[in-house]
Amino acid sequence: MKKRYVQFIVFIAVVVVIVLLSGFSFTSMWKDPPIVPGPGVTEIKMLSDWLPSLAGTKSDTEVYIIRGSQPGGNLLLLGGNHPNEPGGMLAAVLMIENVSSLVGTVYIIPRANHSAFTHNDPMEGAPQFFSIELPEGSKRTFRFGSRRTNPVSQWPDPTIYNHPTGSTLGGSEISNLNRAFPGREDGLITERVAAAIMNIVKQEKIDLVCDLHESSPEYPVNNAIVFHQKAAELAIMTQMMLEMEGVNIRLEESPPSLRGLTHREIGDNSDAYVVLLEVANPSQGRLRGKTTEELVTTGVDKYYLQASKDGKLFAPYDETGYPLELRVARHVTTVRVLLDSWNMMFPDRMIMLSDVPAYNAILSDGLGAFLKPVS
Ligand SMILES: [Zn+2]
């Protein structure tokens, strides 16, 4: 009897320890890794400034504003629409920490689906964090999040998602921010985030929206500009100018029947020109092996190497993997060239930036050279 009593106490103690450790691990993801605003940042607002019902929720998030000394056009840059695609979030962070504006204003939301940064995709075995070393020896740590909003913020999903455009989507897509546009101000939290971003586009008279993503190397739409039909000429000109710099990128027109995505819904529901950028990310693909922090940052994976040898991939891939600095360099450079193209087409709505990190410098010096130490 006494032995069973001891076993019971030990069992309860082990359960309490496991629950406490899991709880601390889970809630550690609720704290935002710092972003250090660079000299070009003139204001930091919150998404709830454009939709007050988001205030106090895990979906409220910073909007960094880089206002130029001269008025011009307005750019909205979205990172972290899908937090399991770290290249998009980091490209946005690099812009915030380095770039200034000479003409026009840039609004940057690096963690667009903030709630989705506070957990991981179930059953994917992804790391919670990854780090980048800075030249002076310190590290910057970032969250590797989920494609979908945290169920703590929004649960349960409906069986069928009745999209505001009248089409129907699978129920779980209501927690995928990039299916929730143009959003509903009184909808579930993911729809409200989309509605708040739409409010920014309309109230701040955004001319150009660029949404930064990553996709798996076996998916045909990677290393690509996906463009709303209004932005076709802009995308073609950007592709030609990127090719001249030795950066190959393909073009994909946004399909009219694919609802809820930024390039479709912001393009249809505002005057803005909208593009979405994709680069290849082996850490989110289905062919990958163990999903480690190293895979997130280097993209080196023996199964992807074999798939590449077998001709199964849509991205160039060899022993060097697909490192995060290459993915971020592609995004940052595409944004710079996109703006060069924009300024040629719309000189009365010019957006001119300075100190945009250069492609070769990101590759040779690493991402750490463009991130600020956290004091
Ligand atoms: Zn994505």
Overview of the structural elements:
- This is Succinylglutamate desuccinylase/aspartoacylase.
- It comes from Mesotoga infera.
- One of its GO terms (molecular function) is hydrolase activity, acting on ester bonds.
- This protein is α/β, with parallel strands linked by helices and 375 residues long.
- It contains nine helices and 13 strands.
- Helix 4 links the parallel strand 10 and strand 11.
- The protein is globular.
- The model has no long low-confidence stretch (mean pLDDT 96).
- The site of zinc ion has 4 residues, from loops.
Secondary-structure blueprint of this entry?
Elements: H1 2-28, E1 43-46, E2 62-67, E3 70-78, H2 86-98, E4 100-109, E5 129-133, E6 139-143, E7 160-162, E8 168-170, H3 189-203, E9 208-215, E10 224-227, H4 232-244, E11 250-253, H5 262-269, E12 273-280, H6 293-298, H7 302-309, H8 324-345, E13 352-354, H9 359-365
Parallel strand pairs: 3-4, 3-9, 9-12, 10-11
Antiparallel strand pairs: 1-2, 2-4, 4-13, 5-6, 7-8, 10-12
Helix pairs in contact: 2-8, 4-8, 8-9
The protein binds zinc ion (ZN).
Residues 82, 85, 178, 213 line the site of zinc ion (ZN).
Task: Please provide a brief summary of the model.
This protein is of the alpha/beta class and 375 residues long. The chain has nine helices and 13 strands.
Structural shape: globular
Radius of gyration: 21 Å
Which series of helices and strands comes N to C?
Answer: HEEEHEEEEEHEEHEHEHHHEH
Which residue ranges are poorly predicted, with pLDDT under 50 across at least 5 consecutive positions? none
Global structural class: alpha/beta
How many domains make up the 3D coordinates?
2
